[in-house]
Design brief:
This is Protein phosphatase. It comes from Arachnia propionica. Keywords: Membrane, Transmembrane, Transmembrane helix. InterPro entries: PPM-type-like_dom_sf (IPR036457), PPM-type_phosphatase-like_dom (IPR001932). The protein is 33% helix and 23% strand. The chain has two domains: 253 residues, PPM-type phosphatase domain (Phosphatase 2c, domain 1, 4-Layer Sandwich), CATH 3.60.40.10; 85 residues, no CATH class. The protein contains 13 helices and 16 strands. The chain is globular, with a radius of gyration of 28 Å. Strands 2, 3, 4, 5, 6, 9 and 12 form a seven-stranded antiparallel beta sheet that branches. It is of the alpha+beta class. The longest helix has 27 residues.
């Protein structure tokens, strides 16, 4: 039996944010929510790219090509982000989640990266289809945090994987066979983070889809509306020609943000500068452009010297003022420490002061993070620096425990060697996440999955 989708799409700013960095797209063949991040680095542009690419690639497919189709959309969106960042480095740091599905009439091919979510409501039971790529979810997976604790965790907005133009996206792909009456919901964390699963189950199961969408958005706003709120709600119904003929609908930043056209590297480039023009002013005019030397030639020299001193003094004051607002994490006496200011000196005077020396030993860290601490890790404020030091302490604890476990492991037998369990996954916090009310994320950069430093021996 073949089915159709009766869908609704909604995206709004919420009660706190100044602009909408979410985007959404819905059609008879494709559903998508994208939550941009990067703030000034154009999170709204990133989500708009994802939704626009979905809209331009939308078409009806058979069951055999759904996941391939979704992978292609994600790859093209990611490539577009890479091109934009290469064209304008001010955009470096933008990224977006991607959570949606292609529909064949009997099957959903679901693609997911980030912490936007997909849900299935079937026979009155709500099931979360996707698995968050977030820091708190990794703690839940390790048994160190409960879902209830994660809901109010200060780092709940820290995401480990997004589309950001890099080559290492690693999305999740899977298929779902649909049934008549199924309700599918894709949403950003502006909804799932403020509305409970029970409330989602009750409201999404309403008979009137327009009313269900309105009530879900209203409840998220009533619970604070701290983030942009975007959702696509679709009910699986017996095949109907009128539903299959509906046009696709864009929402959110995809309607508000213009996507720049990238200038190709092999373009015509900048024009050559014009040739210099020879101006012959005659002897009288020459005198005016080249004054004769006089006994008071020291005056312009003195003025230039004063100007240089003022310039240096102003620069020194500006650097000192700027450094007072910055923080970084580096080594002090072999320990991880937090500093206020900037690394280095100016005119022989240090531009930083020690704020806190932690108990965390640098030598206990994995090799990758030892190198980062040695090179200093910048932070925009004290909270971000503290969060970075906290996560370094956790890496050191894990690494130390791993070394102890290896030291106590039995010696290799002739038949093989004892298995060494890998370290838990290290969060990729190089991906810029949306700021949460609790503050900005840490600025650590995790090693790639193929790097030697990510191996337990890297400890």
């Amino acid at each position: 039996m073949t089915f159709s989708l009766d869908f609704r799409v909604h995206s709004e700013v919420g009660r706190v944010r100044q602009n909408n960095q979410d985007a959404a797209y819905a059609s008879p063949h494709l559903l998508l929510v994208a939550d941009g991040m990067g703030g000034a680095a154009a999170g709204d542009l990133a989500s708009a790219v994802a939704a626009t690419e979905a809209g331009s690639s939308d078409r009806r497919l058979g069951d055999d090509h759904l996941l391939e189709h979704m992978a292609g959309i994600m790859q093209r969106a990611n490539d577009r982000l890479a091109d934009l960042i290469h064209w304008n480095l001010d955009l470096d740091g933008m990224g977006t989640t991607f959570c949606g599905a292609a529909f064949s009439g009997t099957m959903l091919g679901i693609a997911h990266i980030g912490d936007s979510r997909g849900y299935l409501l079937r026979d009155g039971e709500l099931q979360q289809l996707t698995h968050d790529h977030s820091w708190v979810q990794s703690l839940i997976d390790e048994g160190r945090l409960t879902p209830e604790q994660a809901a109010s965790h200060p780092h709940r907005s820290l995401i480990l994987k997004v589309l950001n133009g890099s080559d290492e996206t690693e999305p999740d792909f899977f298929e779902l066979e649909v049934q008549a009456g199924d309700v599918v919901l894709f949403c950003s964390d502006g909804l799932s983070g403020l509305v409970s699963d029970e409330e989602l189950r009750t409201l999404a199961g309403g008979e009137d889809l327009d009313e269900a969408v309105a009530r879900l958005a209203a409840l998220a706003n009533a619970n604070g509306g701290y983030d942009n709120i975007s959702l696509v709600l679709a009910r699986v119904v017996p095949q109907r020609d009128d539903l299959d003929a509906r046009p696709g609908v864009l929402a959110g930043s995809a309607l508000e943000r213009e996507i720049p056209k990238v200038v190709p590297d092999d373009g015509p480039g900048y024009p050559e500068p014009p040739e210099a023009v020879n101006l012959d002013h005659g002897s009288d005019e020459t005198a005016r452009y080249a004054p004769r030397d006089t006994k008071r030639r020291w005056a312009p020299v003195l003025a230039a010297l004063v100007a240089v001193l003022l310039l240096l003094g102003g620069a020194f004051w500006a650097v000192r003022l700027y450094s007072a607002s910055r923080y970084f994490v580096a080594a002090a006496n072999g320990h991880v420490a937090i500093f206020n200011g900037l690394p280095g000196t100016l005119l022989g005077r240090p531009l930083h002061r020690l704020v806190e020396e932690r108990d965390t030993l640098v030598e206990d860290l994995p090799v990758h993070y030892q190198q980062q601490v040695a090179g200093t890790i910048s932070a925009p404020d004290l909270q971000a620096a503290t969060e970075t030091a906290d996560i370094l302490a956790e890496h050191a604890r894990r690494c130390s425990a791993e070394r102890t476990r290896r030291d106590r492991a039995p010696a290799p037998t002739p038949g093989g060697q004892p298995t060494v369990a890998p370290l838990p996954t290290v969060p990729d916090a190089s991906v810029p996440a949306q700021p949460s009310p609790a503050g900005p994320p840490t600025l650590l950069t995790a090693p790639s999955s193929g790097a030697a430093e990510s191996d337990p021996e890297g400890c």
